[in-house]
Structures are given as C-alpha cells and as structure tokens.
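Weekly structure sync, notes
Attendees: PL (lead), two postdocs, one rotation student
Agenda item 3: pending single-chain targets
PL asked that the sequence for the first pending target be pasted directly into the notes so everyone works from the same version. It is reproduced below exactly as submitted, 145 residues in total.
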Amino acid sequence: MGLNKSFSNAINYSFISGFRVIARLVRSSMLEVLRLDYIKTARAKGVSETRVVLSHALRSAIITILPILGLQAGFVLSGSVYIEIVFQWPGIGRMLVDAILTRDIMLVQGGVLFIAYVTYYLISLSIFYNFGLIQGYSENDQFYF
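Predicted structure, written out during the meeting:
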C-alpha cells in the first residue's frame, strides 16, 4: 500500500513539474493578450467575460504555446529511453541503448533518425496544421512554406 502511494505521488509530481512550463507560458501569454485593444473592445461591446477569454484571448495566446507543446512531446519521447531501461520494457529506446552498447552504428543511426523524424518532422507538421485550425483558415487558402 505504501509503495503504491509513493509511486503514485512520484508520477503525479512528474506530470505537475512537466506542466509548469506550459502553465507559466499560458499565464504570461494570456496576461499579454488580455491587455490588447480588441479585448477591450469586445468587453465594451458587452461580450461575456467567458466568451472574451475563451474565444478571443485564448485563441490568440495559444499560438505561442503550440511550439512549446511540440518541444515537450520531444522530451517525452526522449524520456521513454529511461523508462524502457528502468522497467526493462522493449521499445525503440531500449533498442537504441542496446545498439550503443554493442556498437552497432547502423542501428544507432537508424534509431536516431527515426526518433528525430517522429519528434521534429511529424510534430512540427501537426503544429503547423493546428495553427491553421486555430486561426480559422479555410481549405481554399494557400500556404507558402
């Protein structure tokens, strides 16, 4: 009973410490956006405070938060290496460590390229897609990357 409780507390602490960066960023972005003129105009028009915060302010503040969420996802993938080693779970992190210990250079290169591809390319692509969803772009709008 005591071990499960302490493990549960450790897991809760790790999630809370991971979210502190995002919480601080959300707070600072929201404070900055809530001072802008269009927020004051929406309040002057009589729009409810909930709608002002959720529809107007959070929509603008989330733009600075999405790239940090992508980086946090990369940290989660890199943390999987430690979890797989500690708990002896099979996975790409464990395979990568075994390849390093046996000096299998080709497997190390493939594992690193795969993790880099998944982490940075796919997550960056999803962040760009979410920018369009948040800003309300239609399918007919053209993007030039």
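Discussion points:
- The mean pLDDT is 80.
- Residues 2-135 form one domain.
Action: rotation student to compare against the earlier draft before next sync.
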